[in-house]
Amino acid sequence: MGEERLDMIVVRAFDPSKDGVGVEEVERRCEVGPSGKLSLFTDLLGDPICRVRNSPAFLMLVAEMGEEIVGMIRGCIKTVTCGRRISRNVRNNYAISYNVMDNNDLSKPVPVYTKVAYILGLRISPSHRRMGLGLKLVCQMEDWFRQNGAEYSYMATESDNHASVKLFTDKCGYSKFRTPSILVNPVFAHRVTMSSRITIIKLTPPDAELLYRRRFDTTEFFPRDIDSVLKNKLNVGTFLAVPRDSLKFGLWAGSDYFLSNPPESWSVLSVWNCKDVFRLEVRGASRVKRTFARTTRIIDKAFPFLRLPSVPAVFRPFGLYFMYGLGGEGPRAAKMMKTLCGHVHNLAREGGCGVVATEVAGREPLKSGIPHWKMLSCSEDMWCIKRLGEDYSEGSVGDWTKSSPGLSIFVDPREF
Question: Matching SUPFAM superfamilies, A to Z (predicted)?
Fold first, then answer.
């Protein structure tokens, strides 16, 4: 019976002129949380493809039975770092392109890139589950990935979302790959105090691009088009933390000079404005919890000098700022990262956000410097990956799906 019904379902590209209402209805049905428990709901602000439209290539498919939309899936494609190799030719294209020809280039690790696809937003109407529709949507999306040259496909889900993990690992041929952590910190009514011994510099997009390519382009999942990310209108900015006494005459001389004469410790991160893409809302909270949260905000707002932690207004639609590209060097890098996170908190407060979030590798060295509330955070996300073809872009990496995880990972804000 299920196979007969599946044959009646047509999978096609999303048509924004007629599919908007049907897609929103499926999203609403899929976000019915368990009775008596807190659930997180997402408002896409009337734009069903908002979470992929900033990627270099993207597609949304819908499953239609008769005139009813019963499922959907989104996917995007980009080129990212999947490993590194040692450059033995000082006159390689990378060195020439970014003017980094120095004595260290003979042994400088350079990135190995691959074309990777990302699946997100798979939704199946409750009335059409357990009939193979999810598998059908994934397979058709993978066909588009292959047609556009993607070598790998990956997806992310909560580690305790057993149905999703089972679908991808048991039926779609994916392997469990990485387990990063999602860290969420509330935005309080009071401002976070900045350390007087640390200077925070807002980098221009060209300076930020140079810094990232010179220091972090061998980080796993680093996007080759990082310049497009940094120049996007949703990018709030890139911020660098350095010791106050490290700046000559208190002036910033640019990333090129900074990288040739770096201080002992420094940290960097970029900020993405998710508030203008989607809004979140926590539902299912009791009246007691709502009252407690409201009381903490009232007290925090009335007595900001006490700097008391307050529960943000998450029981109505709220926005967030996402921190990405986190990195740094030196023994005080984690402390400087904490200062940067405080700066982002203050920006998010001014921008009307409820929380600040980031996603980092489980063994990220700077993790200890990222403030977060455990009750709001996901200690382990699950990324699963699949190799789509037999060939590899560069043989120095081999099969990426079998590689060991590095200390850090670059989470693309366009896909969060």
Answer: Acyl-CoA N-acyltransferases (Nat)
